[in-house]
Amino acid sequence: MNFDRFINYKSPLMPYLFLVFVFFTPSIAMAGDNESGDWNHTAAIYLWMAGQSGTMAVKGVPAQVDVDFSDILDALDAGFLGHFETKKDEWAFGADVVYLKLGTTANYGTLGFTNVNVKAETTIAEFFAAYEFAPAWEVLGGVRYTSVSGDLGINNQILPKGLQFLGKKDWFDPFVGLRYITPINDKWSFRGRIDAGGFGVNSDMVWSASALFGYQFSDTGTAYIGYKVLDYDYADGAGNNRFVYDVSMQGPLLGVAFDF
């Protein structure tokens, strides 16, 4: 497999990373002014090899998407997750930025269409606050911004030149959830999270769950391996303007985090 395509310096991810930097600069400054030094910061980057399954519709034209784990590296052009968090005492404030780019062939079973070439580019920016209400347990809430660009190309014998349908939607969803963070021993730790949101504000429902095992390889560095699921049920418009993103994304996470 060619892993060079996972690196794209012109990715739409960059403006959101800049937004995260600007958003959290005040908290970093406060940490420097705090004599007790009790603000703790964590920055992490992950490779998310996320398969996708479900239904996507652009301009009213639906297509079934089904990319399982064995097809991830063939279909996924890019899959990154960035994380920044600052914490003091019981309170934590954080941001996640996700960028996924998928290209695959899906089946569309009417009108004699033989295949649909699906290209989906998804950018997610999430901001949250968390409160530790019991040892290792945190309740959290925040807002998640989602931007999806869809490109459906239809080819068959009836339409030898093919048809192309382009569409883009972006929206915000509130969410609430729980986190569980605990050491296993002096080197290993575990982080689990589950949240749900949307509630009809934009998405009918969107939920996510993740589990990560961390190995502390230095005083400030930790390597992580785990699994993440993110599931959307979103639809907007009608007729030829119908856009549907009823998709589940899931796959392994590999990453590294640094504390400062």
Quick tags:
disordered N terminus, elongated, Lipocalin
Question: What can you see in these coordinates?
Answer:
This protein is mostly beta strands and 260 residues long. It has one domain (3-259): Lipocalin (Beta Barrel), CATH 2.40.128. The chain is 10% helix and 65% strand. It has helices at 13-33, 72-75; strands at residues 40-48, 51-58, 61-67, 76-88, 91-106, 115-134, 137-155, 163-183, 188-197, 205-216, 221-236, 243-259. The protein is elongated and about 55 Å long. The chain starts with 12 loop residues before the first helix and ends with a strand.
CATH level-3 fold name = Lipocalin
Strand content: over 45%
Strand order in the largest sheet: 1-4-5-6-7-8-9-10-11-12
**What's the Cα radius of gyration?**
20 Å
Describe the structure concisely for a colleague.
The protein is built from two helices and twelve strands, in the order αβββαβββββββββ. With 260 residues, the chain is mainly β.
Indicate the topology:
Elements: H1 13-33, E1 40-48, E2 51-58, E3 61-67, H2 72-75, E4 76-88, E5 91-106, E6 115-134, E7 137-155, E8 163-183, E9 188-197, E10 205-216, E11 221-236, E12 243-259
Antiparallel strand pairs: 1-4, 1-12, 2-3, 2-12, 4-5, 5-6, 6-7, 7-8, 8-9, 9-10, 10-11, 11-12
